[in-house]
Design brief:
Elements: H1 2-7, E1 9-11, H2 14-33, H3 43-46, H4 49-56, H5 68-81, E2 85-89, E3 100-105, E4 109-110, E5 113-117, H6 118-128, H7 130-135, E6 140-143, E7 155-158, E8 161-164, E9 167-170, H8 174-179, H9 191-204, E10 211-213, E11 220-223, E12 228-232, E13 235-236, E14 246-250, H10 265-268
Parallel strand pairs: 1-2
Antiparallel strand pairs: 2-11, 3-11, 3-14, 4-13, 5-10, 5-12, 6-7, 8-9
C-alpha cells in the first residue's frame, strides 16, 4: 500500500520550490508596478481588483516553470486520463498563487479529504442494481443555489452519470438534487430516483471503495472533477482565528480535457475545452482574493 501511495504523491524539490517562488515574485511585481496599483496599495492585501484580474487571467507563458512545468504537464495527463487525482507536497505557504486545493492550515481534528472513482461507483451499482444505475443516467432537477444566469430558471436538469464520447462523466452533489424540489416547476423525484441516489451515497461512503487523504500545510490536492467524487469529513477547528482551518481552492478549465455532454451547458455555460469557466451571473467580476473573506 505504501508503494501505491507514492504513485499519486508529487513532492517538490528545493529547486522546484524556488522556481515557483521566482515566478510568483515576477508576477506580483508586474501587478503592483502597473496601472492596476494606481491607488497606492501594496502587498497581498493591497492588490486592486484590476491586479487581481491579472492573476485570474494567468497563463503558462506568464508563469514560466521550466523544470517543474513538464512534471505538472504529466500530472495533468494523469488527472484527465489516468487515476483522476494527485497530491502535490512541500509547497511553501508564503502567499503564492495556487492551483487546486492548497492547505494553509489544518483543523484541530478531522477535515480529511475523501475521494472515490465515478467509474467504480457506477460499475458497482450496475452490478448490484442495474435498474437504479439506469435512473442515474436520466436527467434530474439540480438547484442553482442562487447562481442564476439572466433569463434562466433557478434549477436545471442534468443526469448524475453521462455516457458521452466513450467516457463516463459524473456530476453529483446530493443536496442540490434534493433542494431543487423546493421549486414547484421542477420535476418531482420518484421513489426510484431517491432509491438510486441513496444507493449511490451508500457506495460513495463505503470504505472499501473510497480513499481518505489528509492535507497538511503546504500540501496541494488535484482532482479531476469529471470522473472523481470528492468530499471531506467533519472537523473541529481551533478556537483562535489565526489557527483555524484555511484552504485555498481554484477551479480550472484545462486544455486537453474531455468533451462534456450537452446537458453540462446549463451549469458550465461554454462547453469549449479549455474555456468553460462556469456560469456568469449579473454583476459578477473575476477576482483573486489573497486574504480570507
Amino acid at each position: 500500500m505504501a508503494a501505491r501511495r507514492h504513485e499519486w504523491e508529487l513532492s517538490l524539490s528545493a529547486a522546484e520550490v524556488a522556481e515557483v517562488e521566482a515566478a510568483v515574485a515576477a508576477l506580483l511585481q508586474q501587478a503592483e508596478a502597473g496601472p492596476a496599483n494606481a491607488d497606492g496599495g501594496g502587498g497581498d492585501a493591497g492588490l486592486t481588483a484590476a491586479a487581481q484580474q491579472l492573476l485570474a487571467g494567468l497563463t503558462p507563458e506568464r508563469f514560466p516553470l521550466p523544470t517543474l512545468g513538464p512534471r505538472l504537464a504529466a500530472l495533468r495527463q494523469e488527472l484527465l486520463h489516468g487515476r483522476g487525482f494527485a497530491l502535490l507536497r512541500r509547497l511553501p505557504v508564503d502567499s503564492c498563487d495556487v492551483v487546486g486545493l492548497l492547505c494553509l492550515r489544518e483543523a484541530a481534528s478531522g477535515g480529511d479529504s475523501l475521494l472515490v472513482s465515478a467509474d467504480t461507483l457506477f460499475n458497482e451499482l450496475r452490478s448490484a442494481a442495474p435498474h437504479l444505475a439506469a435512473r442515474l443516467l436520466a436527467p434530474m432537477p439540480h438547484d442553482r443555489r442562487g447562481e442564476v444566469p439572466a433569463g434562466q430558471l433557478p434549477f436545471f436538469d442534468i443526469p448524475v452519470f453521462s455516457w458521452f464520447e466513450e467516457q463516463l462523466t459524473v456530476f453529483y452533489q446530493r443536496q442540490y438534487f434534493d433542494s431543487a424540489q423546493r421549486f414547484p416547476e421542477a420535476r418531482r423525484l420518484t421513489e426510484e430516483d431517491v432509491a438510486a441516489l441513496d444507493a449511490l451515497d451508500a457506495l460513495a461512503n463505503d470504505s472499501r471503495l473510497n480513499l481518505t487523504m489528509r492535507l497538511a500545510p503546504g500540501d496541494m490536492q488535484w482532482v479531476h472533477n469529471h470522473n472523481m467524487l470528492h468530499d471531506r469529513t467533519a472537523f473541529t477547528d481551533h478556537p483562535e482565528p489565526g489557527r483555524r482551518r484555511h484552504l485555498l481552492r481554484l477551479w480550472l478549465a484545462v486544455p486537453g480535457a474531455r468533451p462534456l455532454p450537452p446537458a453540462f451547458a446549463a451549469r458550465y455555460g461554454s462547453l469549449t475545452v479549455g474555456d468553460r469557466g462556469g456560469i456568469v451571473v449579473p454583476g459578477m467580476q473575476l477576482t483573486v482574493p489573497l486574504k480570507p473573506e
